[in-house]
Amino acid sequence: MDLLEQIAVAMQRGDSDTIGQLLRQALDNELAPKDILDNGLIAGMNVIGDRYKKHEIFLPEVLLAAKAMHVGMDILKPLFLKDEVPSRGRVVIGTVQGDIHDIGKNLVAIMLRGAGFEVIDLGNDVAPNKFIDTAVERNAKIIGMSALLTTTMPVMKKVIEQLKEKGLNGRIKTIIGGAPLSGEFAEHIGADAYGYDSVQAVDCIKKLVSGS
Amino acid sequence: MLKNEDLNNPRPVLKFLSDTTIERIMSEARDVLCKLGFEIHNDAILSMLQDHGASVDKSKNHVLFTNDIIDKALKTTPDSVKLYDVMGDETLDLSGYNVYFTPGSAALNILDGKTQEIRKPLTADYVKYAKLMSLLDNIASQSTAFIPSDVHERISDSYRLYLSLLYCEKPVVTGAFTIEAFNIMRDLQMVVRGSAEELVAKPLTIFSCCPTSPLKWSDVTSQNVVDCALSSIPVEFISMPLSGFMAPVTLIGTLVQHTAETLSGLVISQVTNPGAPVLYGGSPAIFDIRYETTPMGAIGTQMIDCAYNEIGKYLHIPTQAYISLSDAKQLDAQAGLESSMGATLAALAGINNISGPGMLDFESCQSLEKLVLDNEICGMALRLIRGIQPKEDFPALPRFEELLKEKHLLISEHTQKYLREELCLPGAIIDRANRTRWQEEGSLTLLERGRREVSKLLNRYEPPRLSEDVKKELKKTMLREAQRCGMERLPEIAL
């Protein structure tokens, strides 16, 4: 097994310690950071996502892999020039105004970071304009909104309406998630996607980013 | 000061009978055995009982037991039965409150997974079943679950055992349909073990032996008890009183009859070979006077099962019951509710060998998809009886400090260490997806998920580790028996 494969396997085990050792070894062997990232860390993470969808592994295993990803990124990041840090995209995420339930949103943020996204987490009780202003300021292409209460779900619609008013819809895509939501609701309010769990939300965002 | 042992909570136990009631049932059952007596249609057994002090009238196939013969039998009956798998590893320790599941046995039909028709099973069905059984973790033993219809009926009992031994390593709950079949069924086991002594040392099967209610033993089944005792093959007595029909309508009255019938079997076994392994089993049922049927999923039936198990425990004899099964004809809500109610009650009552998984339609129809579902029911019941125990939970503060710091405990060491033993996560036949995920995965019904799981599991199958020589010898032994019964060859898949 070559070094990159070993890294991918260690990722699948969520073995942060080994990831650290293997990455240093890979860098000593003068492997390119981009190669290590794509064919080691992300390759391993992709296997994790597939296995989760097939019910072969569960959330803790995915989270452990995500944690290993963070360890790997901490080592690799300084090796990229500031503007060249590879990122799958930038996502602004938060729980909508009036709602302080952030468990689901936190999970999605962890998973997104694990998958190589840059996440700007606005926390909870986030006002509609804050989502939009941050996305514009930070040049994020995705806004992710979470809600647990049926009473706060309409806030999501407000965000989407404001995006339209500002002519930003289409340039900034939206994804919503949370226990009371559904695909139908997403369609109804004009959101671009609905994520029913954290792993699937990452998949949706990958698709939104690639435009497919 | 609180000691650590004070924190160990007892296993949850379901009880219906006080010791006083059990003693009264025992004494009434003894009266039945000693004053009304039993019909036994087997001269040799009648002679043997007569030699041990029972009053026998051979012209009427009748015997009056004595309290002395019953007491002696109870004294020599072992308090545990151990079973060893095909490879010789200890798999079941049937004693105390240990609980194991085994599929319902000897069904005449199978519910076809594809067509949902009830039909006669074939060898190919049995092979699939045995393969599946080797992959269902919560069902500790296999049973000879149904009767392949593509072989001569004279070998239909031994042939099931043969296929089971060839395709699955788990020990087998089985039974012989004739006196002659016992020999070949013992021979097959000796091929696996290598010698008679080794088979005695490491029992591989349990034979179900059924008295006929009320208060009778047929020639075949009583002889099976004797033959098993002589070879130290464990026997489970399957008394089947029917409340309100062939037994008193009251549950206590039914228990008196069940006790008498089971004690009679115990005496036959222990007089034949003191210390022979037995299980205090049964398959009683209430009688449904509206349909003239014997519902296994009836709450009354299941209460009788749990209660006679208490009598078995009182006598320090391992127990068995046909209880986690259903009378439904399809894999529907009734199938699930009756099977899970039975499994839950049985596990709480501590019935050692719980028979039933896979079974539908009054013990007459097996279903592979239901076996997969029932495997999950068994897993939940097994989790239930592990109860609630502290696991590095005290002091609690460090855990909560960790939670507040990390914002979740999904990957904390404590979670990783205890997740799988603390939280019972069933297989994919149990739907726990949120609605959108369920829809995206095809909006599958229970039956469809069952089919998917059956084929997924069968793809993972690995054959038993039995040596090729043993497999060859098993095939030779079975073929010889088939040819003796006029069948030139066995179905292709069996060879």
Radius of gyration of chain B: 24 Å
Overall radius of gyration of chain A:
18 Å
The pLDDT mean of chain A sits at 92
The assembly state of the depicted protein chains is heterodimer
Molecular shape of chain A: globular
Termini separation of chain A comes to: 34 Å
- Main beta sheet strand tally, sense and closure of chain B: 5 strands, parallel
Number of separate helices of chain A: 9
CATH architecture of the largest domain in chain B: Alpha-Beta Barrel
Counting structural domains of chain B, the number is 2
Secondary structure: number of strands of chain A: 5
Spans of at least 5 consecutive residues with low confidence of chain B: none
Say what the CATH topology of the largest domain in chain B is: TIM Barrel
Low-confidence stretches of chain A: none
Biggest sheet details of chain A: 5 strands, parallel
Q: What string, H for helix and E for strand, traces the elements of chain A in order? A: HHHHEHEHEHEHEH
CATH structural class of the largest domain in chain B: Alpha Beta
How would you write the strand order of the largest sheet of chain B?
A: 9-10-11-13-15
Describe what you observe in this structure.
The complex is a heterodimer of chains A (212) and B (495). Chain A has 212 residues and is of the alpha/beta class. Chain A has helices at 3-13, 16-28, 33-53, 59-76, 103-114, 128-137, 153-165, 183-189, 198-210, and strands at residues 90-95, 118-121, 142-146, 173-177, 193-194. Chain A has a 5-stranded parallel β-sheet, sandwiched between helices. In chain A, α1 (3-13) crosses α3 (33-53) and α2 (16-28) packs parallel to α4. The two termini of chain A are 34 Å apart. The mean pLDDT of chain A is 92. With 495 residues, chain B is an alpha/beta fold. Helix content of chain B is 45%, strand content 12%. Chain B has helices spanning 19-36, 43-51, 67-76, 123-133, 156-167, 179-193, 196-201, 219-230, 251-272, 299-314, 333-349, 368-386, 397-406, 413-422, 435-440, 446-459, 468-484; strands spanning 38-40, 55-57, 62-64, 81-84, 90-94, 100-102, 109-111, 118-119, 142-143, 172-174, 205-209, 216-217, 235-237, 242-243, 278-279, 285-286, 320-322, 353-355, 359-360, 365-366. In chain B, α1 (19-36) crosses α9 (251-272). The longest helix of chain B has 22 residues, at 251-272. Chain A binds chain B through residues 14, 55, 58-60, 63-64, 67, 103, 106-107, 182-183, 194, 196-197, 200, and chain B through 407-408, 410-411, 415-416, 419, 425, 428, 434-437, 439-440.
